[in-house]
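User: Just a sanity check before I run the rest of the batch. Below are the structure tokens for the first item. I only need the designed sequence back.
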């Protein structure tokens, strides 16, 4: 049977470090030698699919048969090449455009900024009485995938949705010397019941 090799790294993003490039090249060599290589990332990013595909588009990876790229959050979101988070975000036409062509909505003491990269919506910032309280993040299709709760300019939780809009994970954070750490990860089943609560990324990964 084919031998399997797992490579674990926090994140593969658009701008790849030397360590990431070295890991990808090593994975490609092993895959060409007949090994089944799993590249596993552990940090949540709504653009994971885009960054994974870029590894092939840039030529760093060439062996699609023997290399499988997995993000543990995307795994629970049930995302693959053709899937995206489908939860609808109601589009309100009552907005103004700022100088960068972002949409600005005003509701009394609340403001909402929809930020765009070209035609694709990347995230939405929601302010209450001039304080940033929530950030909605979208995937590379521009579809809603996660909701961040923000307190005193720090993210205290992420709500993460699957491809049909169900809440699947809640990640809560704490800070030591301004460094963000995972406090707990709550996994929900298809009936929105708590399936399991993890208190470290290692427990979550091993599950």
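Assistant: Here's the designed sequence for the first item:
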């Amino acid at each position: 049977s084919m031998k399997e090799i797992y490579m674990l790294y926090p994140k593969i993003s658009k701008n790849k470090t030397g360590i990431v490039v070295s890991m990808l090249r090593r994975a490609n060599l092993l895959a060409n030698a007949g090994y089944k290589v799993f590249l596993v990332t552990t940090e949540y990013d709504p653009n994971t699919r885009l960054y994974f595909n870029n590894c092939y588009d840039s030529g760093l990876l060439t062996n699609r048969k023997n290399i499988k790229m997995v993000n543990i959050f995307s795994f629970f979101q049930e995302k693959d090449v053709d899937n995206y988070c489908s939860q609808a975000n109601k589009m309100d036409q009552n907005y103004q455009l700022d100088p960068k062509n972002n949409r600005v909505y005003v509701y009394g003491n609340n403001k909402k900024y929809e930020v765009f990269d070209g035609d694709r919506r990347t995230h939405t910032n929601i302010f209450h009485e001039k304080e940033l309280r929530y950030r909605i993040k979208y995937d590379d299709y521009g579809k809603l995938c996660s909701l961040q709760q923000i307190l005193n300019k720090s993210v205290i939780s992420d709500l993460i949705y699957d491809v049909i809009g169900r809440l699947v994970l809640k990640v809560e954070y704490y800070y030591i010397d301004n460094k963000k750490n995972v406090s707990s990860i709550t996994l929900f089943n298809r009936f929105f019941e708590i399936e399991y609560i993890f208190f470290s990324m290692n427990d979550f990964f091993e599950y």
